[in-house]
Design goal:
This protein is an alpha/beta fold. The protein has 2 domains: 206 residues, Quinone Oxidoreductase, Chain A, domain 1, CATH 3.90.180; 137 residues, 3-Layer(aba) Sandwich (Rossmann fold). It contains 12 helices and 15 strands. The strands form 3 sheets. Strands 3, 4, 5, 6, 7, 14 and 15 form a 7-stranded mixed β-sheet that branches. Helix 6 links the parallel strand 9 and strand 10. The structure holds nicotinamide-adenine-dinucleotide and zinc ion (ZN). The site of zinc ion has 8 residues, from loops.
Length: 350
C-alpha cells in the first residue's frame, strides 16, 4: 500500500510500504477512506516530537471501512464504516474505566503519546491502518453523517471540547477566551457554546481565522498582534478578566497570554502541544487562585459529539475547507502548512 512516511525533520514522502496485518485478536484492519492533517503532524515534521522516528506512518484522524477483524472483536464486522479515534484504548483497564483513555494500561506500547496513532504506532495517513482494541477505538458511523463530518470527530472536536471546554470547566454565563483559532481552537469555540458560555472571545494573529471564529460562535475577536490586545480583552470583560482562557496554539507566548487575561479564580486550559518550555510564573499566579489544566485528548466524548453532529447541532463539516486525493498528499500538507495564505482550516484527503 501507499502511506505518508516521516523521513526526519522536514522530510516526508507518499511512498510504498508493507500492508498492515492483524497482530492481536482485538485488532481490526481499516481501509482509510478519508483522512486529514493536524497541527500536531506539523510539530512532528519540525522535529518537535522526538519520540516519532524515521519510517513512521503519520496521521491520527480518519474515517474508513473495516476490511478484517481479529477473533476477539465483538461489536464490529467487515464492511462497517467507522471513525478511527485518534487514540487507541482498551476501554476497560483502570485508567480507561475513569475515561483516561490517553493513559490506557493495555498491553500494547507505552501510555501517553504511545497510544496516539502516527506516533509510536503507524497512523492513518495511509491506504490501510491496523487499529488495536478495535471495539473501543472505532466508532460506527450512522447513515447521513459524511466522511468530512466524521473525520473531525477523530481528534479535533474531542480535543477542543475535552481539553479546552471540559478541563476549562466552562459553565453557563461564562466569558471564555480562546487563543488560537485554528481547527482545535474553532472546535473549542463551537463546543463552548454547548455549555452556555455567555460570550466567546477569539484571539488570533490571522484575520481570516478570526472571521472563521465568528462563524463557529465567537462573539468578539481580538488580533493578538495588536499592541493593546490585552486591554481589548479586558475591556470586553469590564476589566475583570475572562472566566476561562483556552490556549490552542502551543507556543510559550500564548500560554503566558492565557495567564494574563484570566480573572482571579478563573481557569486556564492549555490545549496546545508545546515543543519548547513555557514560563509558569507561580510567584504571581498563586495569589490569584488560578486553576491550570492541560492534557492529551482522551477522545472519550466522540460518541456524544457524533450525536450532536448527526442531529445537526454541531457543524463539523464547516472545518473541511480543502479537498485532495491520496496521491496529492504532499500538496495537501503544503496547503495546510501555508494556512495563512491558503485560508485552509482542515485539508481533507480521500
Ligand atoms: P493550527 O496551527 O492550525 O492553529 C494554530 C492557530 O494559532 C493559527 O490560527 C495561528 O494563526 C494561531 N496563532 C499562532 N501564533 C499566535 C499568537 N501569537 N497569538 C494568537 N494566535 C496565534 O493548529 P491546530 O490544529 O488548531 O492545533 C492547535 C494546537 O493544539 C497545536 O499545538 C496542536 O498540536 C494542539 N493539539 C493538542 C491536542 C491535545 O491532545 N492536547 C490534540 C490535537 C492538537
Ligand atoms: Zn485501557
Amino acid at each position: 500500500m501507499k502511506a505518508l512516511v516521516y523521513g526526519g525533520p522536514g522530510l516526508k514522502s507518499w511512498t510504498d510500504v508493507p500492508d498492515p496485518t492483524l497482530q492481536s485478536p482485538t485488532d481490526a484492519i481499516v481501509r482509510v477512506d478519508t483522512t486529514t492533517i493536524c497541527g500536531t503532524d506539523l510539530h512532528i515534521l519540525k522535529g518537535d516530537v522526538p519520540a516519532v522516528t524515521v519510517g513512521r506512518i503519520l496521521g491520527h484522524e480518519g474515517v474508513g471501512t473495516i476490511t478484517e477483524v481479529g477473533s476477539a472483536v465483538s461489536n464490529l464486522t467487515v464492511g462497517d464504516r467507522v471513525i478511527i479515534s485518534c487514540i487507541k484504548s482498551c476501554g476497560h483497564c483502570s485508567n480507561c474505566s475513569t475515561g483516561l483513555y490517553s493513559h490506557c494500561l493495555g498491553d500494547e506500547g507505552a501510555s501517553g503519546i504511545g497510544w496516539v496513532f502516527g506516533h509510536l504506532i503507524d497512523g492513518t495517513q495511509a491506504e490501510f491502518v491496523r487499529v488495536p482494541y478495535a471495539d473501543n477505538s472505532l466508532h460506527k458511523l450512522p447513515e447521513g453523517v459524511s466522511d468530512d463530518q466524521g473525520v473531525m470527530l477523530s481528534d479535533i472536536l474531542p480535543t477542543g471540547f475535552e481539553i479546552g471546554v471540559q478541563y476549562g470547566r466552562v459553565k453557563p454565563g461564562d466569558v471564555v477566551a480562546v487563543i488560537g483559532a485554528g481547527p482545535v481552537g474553532l472546535a473549542a469555540i463551537a463546543t463552548a457554546g454547548l455549555y452556555g458560555a455567555a460570550s466567546i472571545i477569539a484571539i488570533d494573529l490571522d484575520e481570516n481565522r478570526l472571521e472563521q471564529a465568528r462563524s463557529f460562535g465567537a462573539t468578539d475577536t481580538v488580533v493578538s498582534g495588536a499592541a493593546d490586545w490585552k486591554e481589548q480583552v479586558l475591556a470586553l470583560t469590564d476589566g475583570a478578566g475572562v472566566d476561562v482562557a483556552i490556549e490552542a496554539v502551543g507556543i510559550p507566548q500564548t500560554f503566558t497570554m492565557a495567564t494574563e487575561i484570566v480573572r482571579p479564580g478563573g481557569n486556564v486550559a492549555n490545549v496546545g502541544v508545546h515543543g519548547k518550555p513555557v514560563d509558569l510564573h507561580l510567584e504571581n499566579l498563586w495569589i490569584q487562585n488560578i486553576n491550570i489544566s492541560m492534557g492529551l485528548v482522551n477522545a472519550n466524548t466522540t460518541k456524544m459529539l457524533l450525536k450532536l453532529v448527526a442531529s445537526k447541532k454541531l457543524a463539523a463539516e464547516k472545518l473541511a475547507t480543502h479537498h485532495f486525493s491520496f496521491d496529492q498528499f504532499v500538496e495537501a500538507y503544503d496547503t495546510f502548512a501555508r494556512a495563512a495564505e491558503t485560508k485552509a482550516l482542515k485539508v481533507v484527503i480521500s
